[in-house]
Write a structure and sequence with these properties.
It is a single chain. The protein is α/β, with parallel strands linked by helices. It folds into two domains: 5-78, DNA polymerase, domain 1 (Orthogonal Bundle), CATH 1.10.150; 91-354, 3-Layer(aba) Sandwich (Rossmann fold), CATH 3.40.50.300. Helix content is 41%, strand content 21%. It is globular, with a radius of gyration of 22 Å.
Length: 359
């Protein structure tokens, strides 16, 4: 019988550190000494001692602990309250666009799958690279302190771009330092450590992609700090070399189930990019996400990046948790960012001026 660490009477920051270090159940903690736990979960020795005392008080991995309804067969399950606490603790991965984060309820959700759709050049890969860096922000700055597996199917992963984004995020956090914990965290939160915690996989076709995903659970068990899986893009390998579309549908359905299972069981966010295709509806052609309507049900949420004239817009057009919203963003030398109000006003005025002059 296993009890979630979220059921322990500990502070939110301590529980978050335990999960980030790969300790999901109290059974994982039973045979650790305070010094060992302190080192592995970056806890103070006092915090580590409190954790182990809480584990023993709850009866380790056994069920019940004297609670009503805690008998055999139920202690491995989460109550609705524990599930709510779990979602609150794991939180989200910020995008560094405060408007988009607000629309998403804090950022891209951990434990769920999100698809980012859009035309070439609109910023899908830029957002993925931003997330790959942001997931590594230390917990004392409100981040997850995690690692990322980045599967590149199009050859669009640009190392120098990651370096630029990482340098900007490190600089941003360094300006927020207020206490000793944050000062210590900045000693190990550098561009070099961000790169060393980014595991890049290059897949050239759908066979390689499916093979990598088959092997990934073993990799994740050895690297429990992975909090983000990026597949950029999921569409590219499945839009070529397929004459049997029914086979493609079966493979995609299986892939979707794999990704959902990994997101939930390993407490990580899964982010996929998708291309756009043209479809005729009512005698008119329109741009829609590729891979068909059945695939559209696979991700938990879908985010559409698109152009509105010269403006880049992000629209939430599928989410069980949030209503549809559209925000403006920009791609700068530092990464994925908000458009400040003065810039938005200037863009609108420029567009109006062009219309007035007939350009």
């Amino acid at each position: 019988m296993q009890r979630s660490v979220f059921s322990l009477s500990l502070s939110p920051s301590v529980k978050r550190k335990l999960v980030n270090a790969g300790f999901q159940f109290t059974n994982d903690l039973l045979h650790l000494k305070p010094v060992q736990l302190s080192k592995e979960a970056t806890l103070s020795q006092l915090e580590a001692l409190e954790v182990l005392q809480a584990v023993r008080k709850e009866g380790g991995g056994g069920g019940g602990g004297g609670d009503e309804g805690g008998g055999a067969g139920t202690s491995s399950s989460l109550t609705a309250l524990e599930l709510l606490q779990k979602e609150e603790e794991l939180r989200s991965i910020v995008t560094f666009s405060s408007q988009l984060d607000a629309a998403l309820g804090g950022g891209l959700p951990v434990g769920k799958t999100t698809e980012i759709c859009g035309a070439p050049g609109v910023g899908k890969t830029q957002l993925c690279l931003q997330l790959a860096v942001d997931v590594q922000v230390p917990p004392c700055f409100g981040g997850l302190g995690g690692q990322v597996v980045y599967i590149d199917t199009e050859g669009s992963f640009l190392l120098q771009r990651v370096v630029d984004i990482a340098a900007a995020v490190v600089q941003h956090c360094s300006l927020l330092v207020e206490d000793d914990e944050q000062r210590v965290a900045m000693t190990t939160f550098t561009v070099e450590t961000i790169l060393s915690n980014t595991f890049l996989v290059r897949c050239h076709d759908y066979v390689e992609l499916l093979a990598e995903l088959h092997l990934l659970p073993d990799f994740l068990s050895v690297h429990p700090r992975v909090r983000l899986l990026v597949i950029d893009s999921v569409a590219f390998p499945f839009r070529q070399h397929f004459e049997d579309l029914s086979q493609r549908t079966r493979l995609l359905n299986g892939l979707a189930q794999q990704l959902i299972a990994m997101a939930t069981s390993h407490n990580m966010a899964v982010v996929m990019t998708n291309q756009m295709t043209t479809r005729l509806r009512g005698g008119q052609s329109q741009q829609v996400p590729a891979l068909g309507e059945s695939w559209g049900h696979a991700p938990t949420a879908r985010l559409l990046l698109h152009w509105a004239g010269s403006r880049r817009m992000a629209a939430i057009f599928k989410s069980p948790d949030h209503t549809g919203a559209t925000v403006q963003y920009q791609i700068t030398s530092e990464g994925f960012r908000d458009v400040v109000q003065s810039e938005q006003t200037h863009t609108v005025q420029s567009a109006a001026s062009q219309r007035d002059t007939g350009h």
